Every structure is written in C-alpha cells, then in structure tokens.
C-alpha cells in the first residue's frame, strides 16, 4: 500500500491546488451538477459507507487504490473526526486539467465542515465529468 497510498495522497493534494489547474469559463449548470454529485457521495462517506463511496467514485479514483485500501485510509481519517454536523460550500471552480493528472473537466469544490471533534475543517471534493456526462468524485482531501 505504501507507494500507491503516497501517490494517491499526492494526487489528491494536487487536485486540491486549484491555483495550479487550468480554469475554464464558469458553467453554472456543470458546477451545480458536480456539487450535487459530490454531496451525494459525501453522504455515503458521512454514513461510514466507505466501500460504497469507492464504488461510486470516478474510474481515476478507483485506479489509484483498491476498495480495501480506500476503506482503511478514509476510515483512519474520518472516524476520529466524528459525525458531520454541518457542511457549507465555500468555493467552486471549473478546471480542465491538473499537472500530472488525467484530463478533465473537473470542478474543485471546497466545503467548510464542522465535525463533532473538529470544527472548521476544509473538505476539498473534486468531481470529474465522465463519458456519460455524469459527475463522479475523483478526489477527496481534508485539511
């Protein structure tokens, strides 16, 4: 898991750096659809249904680590935070690519999230548009 997990964390960190991405012209319809998809995915994670979150993620996400690796990694990060109390979308940006990542488009969403054991966390969720024009989460990072 060592190299794969490091690569996954590095890629997620890269996705969180929207300033390095190539922005696209705002498309409210795309951004709203991506945000809706991200919220549905976050509901799975909030419910502790981590394997289901992996199943519903973008293929690029699934290629970075196995379902079991994802389950262990997210469990170790999310469980200590406790239950999600509130989540507010603070920013969104439509981008076409990230350095070293698969081509997009992506929407970088930043949520301010309060958990039972940590207030004011920032969750960066990055949905990618797939072949059927649906949005699926390709990256997730908590800071």
Please characterize this protein's 3D structure.
The structure is a single chain. This protein has a single domain, classed as NTF2-like, domain 1 (Nuclear Transport Factor 2, Chain: A, Roll). 41% of the residues lie in helices and 29% in strands. The protein is built from five helices and four strands, in the order H-H-H-H-H-E-E-E-E. The protein has helices at residues 2-16, 28-46, 50-55, 59-64, 67-78; strands at residues 84-95, 106-115, 118-129, 135-142. The protein has a four-stranded antiparallel beta sheet. The chain starts with a helix and ends with a strand.
Mean pLDDT: 84
Total DSSP helices: 5
The tally of domains stands at 1
Order of helices and strands: HHHHHEEEE
Distance between the termini: 22 Å
User: What is the CATH C-level name?
Assistant: Alpha Beta
Radius of gyration: 14 Å
Count of extended strands: 4
Low-pLDDT parts are 1-11, 13-20
Kindly name the structural category.
alpha+beta
- Which sequence of strands runs across the widest sheet? 1-2-3-4
Q: Do you know the CATH architecture? A: Roll
- Residue share in β-strands: 25-35%
Q: Report the CATH superfamily.
A: NTF2-like, domain 1
What CATH calls the topology is: Nuclear Transport Factor 2, Chain: A
Shape: globular
Helix content: 40-55%
Q: What descriptors fit this protein?
A:
5 helices, alpha+beta, disordered N terminus, Nuclear Transport Factor 2, Chain: A, single chain, 143 residues, 4-stranded antiparallel β-sheet, 29% strand
